[in-house]
Amino acid sequence: MDLRFSPAQQAFREEVRAFIAARLPEEVRTRLKAGHPPRKEEIVQWQRILNEKGWAAPHWPRKYGGAELGQLERLILLDELSRAPAPLPQAFNVTMLGPVLMKYGTPQQCEYFLPKLANLDLWFCQGFSEPGSGSDLASLRTSARRDGDSYVVNGQKIWTTTAHWADWVFALVRTNPEGRKQEGISFLLIDLKTPGITIRPIRSIDDDHHLNEVFFDDVRVPLSNLVGEENKGWDCAKFLLGNERTGIANVGLYRERLEHAREVARTTTQAGTRLIYDPKLQSDLAALDAEVRALEITNWRFLLTESEQKRLPAFPSVLKLKGVELQQEVNSLLARLAGPGGLERRGPDDTEFGPLAPRYFYSRAASIYGGTSEVQKDILAKNIVG
């Protein structure tokens, strides 16, 4: 398999780099380089800048605001955004919901929602996880019963990332309690301003507010907000989760974090010696660099070879598993480099160590969200046996 870039692809990389250098606000780059997550307003501003060129949703059709980029060009764009570093396009909108609407949505849903998703005029969050369900997503209990031209939704979602920022939620609800639990599930789009919705914050181990509980009490949702067929929402969910897990293998981010680790090691001393000269640290950096390169090639292999995708439908689980492992290892290395100073509570604009230790703590959740590592291993085992 030939993984070399063509002259046109090299030129595209240079175009992306020049665009980022010219348009990305320097204060945003500085905060992200220090390890701070982007603020909502920074994500919105940058996604709208990207959308001017169709790069907010680069793989989408042009009629919906995309650029119809090929797989490799899309990887180049993501890599350069991550290595800048710059905020990435909002994944719930672009990577998850958008493709679901294009595959299962009505023409009216596509026409209305897709341009707004690309330009971040509407911010969606994901309403999948529920209390007591764990990794068994199909055991969800949030119900939706028909009443005239609406569904009436009751139940609770948990661990809902960015619900406090969002305008809408795409949610899995149970529309038929009979039969197999994977059957009887539907996929709804719900406006979070609808009466009966309550959002409560969950503060995580990094002392930040990423997550929420969302409660639905007799929430009326128009029937027109159903995506796909009633009781067939599990098909939408499986399709969406495949996209989500592939997106977790963000090679550019790991490269940027590794380079930041080298920079921290070059500028930090212990007993009068710069950390970068420590042989054990040099070995760790080299090993991680090799692992990132291996993941990069694996990602290319999957995304660029159509026959591989057909033969290996569970391959996103491979990328998810290894991507999570690297994410945790890189964050662990950065926390170790920061030492005791990294444990101090830092302000939102601190650029010395930033939130290196909190980011390490929060990275432990990466092996849970998007499907736990144990579930991914089960998926792979079943496909290998099959």
UniProtKB/TrEMBL annotation:
Provide a Gene Ontology MF annotation, just one: oxidoreductase activity, acting on the CH-CH group of donors
Required cofactor(s): FAD
From the record, what ranges are coiled-coil?
none
Q: What sequence ranges are listed for the domain Acyl-CoA dehydrogenase/oxidase N-terminal?
A: 7-119
Ranges for the Acyl-CoA dehydrogenase/oxidase C-terminal domain? 231-384
* Entry keyword Hydrolase: no
Alphabetically ordered keywords of this record: FAD, Flavoprotein, Oxidoreductase
Pfam families assigned: Acyl-CoA_dh_1, Acyl-CoA_dh_M, Acyl-CoA_dh_N
InterPro entries in the record: Acyl-CoA_Oxase/DH_mid-dom, Acyl-CoA_Oxase/DH_mid-dom_sf, AcylCo_DH-like_C, AcylCo_DH/oxidase_C, AcylCoA_DH/ox_N, AcylCoA_DH/ox_N_sf, AcylCoA_DH/oxidase_NM_dom_sf, Mycobact_Acyl-CoA_DH
Q: Where is the Acyl-CoA oxidase/dehydrogenase middle domain?
A: 125-219
Q: What GO terms fall under cellular component here?
A: plasma membrane
Q: Which family does it belong to?
A: Belongs to the acyl-CoA dehydrogenase family.
Under which name does UniProt file this protein?
Answer: Acyl-CoA dehydrogenase
- Taxonomic source organism: Trinickia symbiotica
